[in-house]
Amino acid sequence: MYRVGIVDTTFARYDMASAAMEELKNLCTVRFERRTVPGIKNLPVECKRLLDEGCDVVMAFGMPGAAPIDKQCAHEASLGLIWVQLLTNKHVIEVFVFEDEASSDEELAELADRRAREHAVNLYRLLFKPEELTKLAGTGQREGLPDAGPLRR
């Protein structure tokens, strides 16, 4: 049975981890290891710990603010998550929702829920049905927002 690490933050304003776990429970049977850290720059080390402790893949959830410093911190956290993948040869599915992606709290909550669930489906495909990902290559998939669609020549 696959072990899926789940790392979220207390800084986030929505519990994306629970939404993703619920989605995965509807799709497959996996064992979850959940950890919570204060903020997004704490995500990389906790993800690495979980991978080092035997998780097969990790989902990292964060909700950066709208200020320029928040976007910089998110970029730095994202670079850390990339390093974790390179150091462990395992996937980290980054699920970030920026506070300025929506015009209201209700819209932001809906976006966070959809993005978490759609990334959970991607994780399911990565583990159990990688051929489905191949079929979706070049189709402009977007998690939480409408798909962009493929380009045509």
Short synopsis of the structure:
The protein has 153 residues and is of the alpha/beta class. Helices cover 48% and strands 16% of the residues. It has helices spanning 16-27, 43-52, 68-88, 105-128, 130-136; strands spanning 3-9, 31-37, 57-62, 92-96.
Which features does this protein show?
5 helices, alpha/beta, Rossmann fold, globular, 153 residues, four-stranded parallel β-sheet, single chain
Which structural class do the helices and strands define? alpha/beta
Distance between the termini: 43 Å
Overall pLDDT level: 97
The CATH architecture is 3-Layer(aba) Sandwich
The number of strands is 4
CATH superfamily: Lumazine/riboflavin synthase
Q: How many domains would you count in the coordinates?
A: 1
For the biggest β-sheet, the strand order reads: 2-1-3-4
Low-confidence stretches: none
Query: How many strands, what sense, and barrel or not for the largest sheet?
Result: 4 strands, parallel
Radius of gyration from the alpha-carbon trace, in angstroms: 15 Å
What is the succession of H and E elements? Answer: EHEHEHEHH
Protein described:
This protein has about 150 residues and is of the alpha/beta class. The protein has a single domain, classed as Lumazine/riboflavin synthase (Rossmann fold, 3-Layer(aba) Sandwich), CATH 3.40.50. It is about 50% helix and about 15% strand. The chain is built from five helices and four strands; from the N terminus they run βαβαβαβαα. It has helices spanning about 15-25, 45-50, 70-90, 105-130, 130-135, and strands at about 5-10, 30-35, 55-60, 90-95. A four-stranded parallel sheet has the order 2-1-3-4, with helices on both faces. α4 packs across α5 (about 130-135). The longest helix has 24 residues, at about 105-130. The radius of gyration is 15 Å and the shape is globular.
